[in-house]
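Ticket reopened. Same input as before:
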Amino acid sequence: MTERDERDRRLTDALRSAWSDLVPPEATPEATDPRTAACVAWMREAWAQLEPPPARVPQHLRPGGVPRFGPWVLPAAAALLLLFLVRDRGLPPASPDPVEELAVSGEPPAETIHREGDALVLERGSVRLLLLTPQTGVPGAEPNTRPETEDLTR
Amino acid sequence: MADPFPPAPEAELVLALLAGDPGALDRWYRAEFPVVWRLALGVLLDAEEAEDLAQEAMLKLHDRLSAWDSARPYRPWRNTLVLNLCRDRLRRRDARRRAEGEAAERELRPAPDPAAALEQGETRELLQLALAALTPREREAFVLRELEGCSSEEAAAAMEIEVGSLRSLLTLARRRLRAFLERRVPELAGGEND
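Engineering reply: fixed in the latest deploy. New output:
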């Protein structure tokens, strides 16, 4: 390192040291000019005249208060209610279960009123049902592969 | 040298509230609500919106009090929460105004006349107009430091910026306010002919 380099280095160090010692002034109103200070003072006075609305502690913050609902709860509840109403109105009234209806109707069970050969006649209330077993050899008839008809009343 | 984070009486109330003191809730709420409302008004410049936001902020503060680290200063913590809510509200308001169209907005809410406001003695109106002459960041800095009396360190911590940046914002804010007020408030216009 030459003597000139050494001198430059010392000078740089001195400048850096002086720079780091600089303290920026506090920009308080007192430090500003009187006209600006007057404006700030006017603002402060006006600020001090502000009257805040009354502070009312919400009930739900108190111990034992009603819990607070989020802003989404009421709209969600309303939407759910609307959904139920629309659904109930859009569908026909639910029909009763036919099995249950039979069970509670009090009508007598089906009764065998006639049996002859492959014919069986059942009757229940005002309905009469004739059951026939297809015979083999009849044109268009399918072979009877099903078991013989049983007496359902047994 | 003054304590950059002086002890806040509000912090004592918070500690009492957290300790289960039955009367602390009322005392804390009544002490804090006006401060929170003023801060909201200073940033939002709308009294109704400020009241609405203050109530929301108080609930949020109450919900989060247990998360406050009592080893850290209380005021910057509280002010940061309120400022963040205000910024969200301003963003939503700007987006809504853009969507509705500036023309419609102007038609609905004509710009108030500062001279008329002063004649009617509406200091609050003029105060809001003066603050409206600042950018949102300048407004935050000015309200915290000059109007609410926070130290520079407290205000900078609340805004989450460096103290140097806060000072720059304050310088710009004072300059703008002086330009605005000297033209509108006769008692401040004395130096115009200097």
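The helical segments of chain A are 3-21, 34-48, 73-90, 98-105. Residues 112 and 122 of chain A are 5 Å apart (CA to CA). Please confirm and we'll close it.
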